[in-house]
Amino acid sequence: MVVKSNAQTLSEENYLKVIYRLGQVGPEKISLTSIAEALNNNPASVVDMLKRLVDKKLVQYEKTKGVKLTEKGRKIALLVIRKHRLWEVFLLEKLGYAWDEVHDIAEQLEHIQDHQLADKLDKFLGFPLYDPHGDPIPKANGEMAITYKTMLANIADNKTCKVVGVKDTSTTFLQYLKKLEIGIGTKIMVVEKIPFDDSMVIMIGKNMRTTVSKVFAENLLVHE
Q: Which of 43, 64, 163, 184 is the most exposed place for a label (fewest CB within 10 A)?
């Protein structure tokens, strides 16, 4: 996926990335409102940006059908995501940054305009399939590893699972996971589900037993 995206501004790349992510959430059309909410921006600014992206043939937009990336726009969005997730791996594994620190720094590094950088970084890191949060890293041809994951909330009593990702990448949630010594690959056993509030008693690894909330269990992604 060799795409020279130096014709795009940082804001344009962020829009393409958000539109791509919204398209992965579900089959519903991507509306101006959903884009504005995702970017914490006002609808008028979104309309102006979409006009620019349509002129550059990066998106298609019709009021009745919503917003859709063109093939060119999709390739650029995947390249930005590819760089972001590779930088997260680099920051965590090579520079010693914490799980909850890498996202914000990668947000800045993902816009470096060198089309060879992603491929060289990928090779240097040993071609990782997933970023530190369990999300698949797009390869040079745009393909991504398949992930088989479900929420911890869906795991039955007395079942053991392995952490493969998170839905909530906020600093507060990641710091809480760090406090509980939970990371990618951590084994968790569901001891008991509590019907009153859907909280769960879990065993982390072999030694730590604790109770977590429904919100927690719905934001931790695992594989049985």
A: 64
Q: What is the pTM of this model?
A: 0.80
95-100 own/partner pairs: CB under 8 Å, 24+ apart: 98/174, 98/178, 99/132, 99/133, 99/174, 99/177, 99/178, 99/183, 100/171, 100/174, 100/175, 100/178
Contact in structure between 133 and 97 (CB atoms under 8 Å): no
Q: Please check whether residue 23 is in contact with residue 31, taking contact to mean a CB–CB distance below 8 angstroms.
A: no
| Angle in degrees, CA 86, 102, 139, rounded to 5 | 15
Whether 40 contacts 46, CB under 8 Å? no
Question: Does residue 13 contact residue 76 with C-beta atoms inside 8 Å?
Answer: yes
Answer whether 86's CB lies under 8 Å from 105's CB: no
Q: Is 221 helix (H, G, I), strand (E, B) or coil?
A: strand
Task: Give pLDDT, residue 5.
Answer: 42
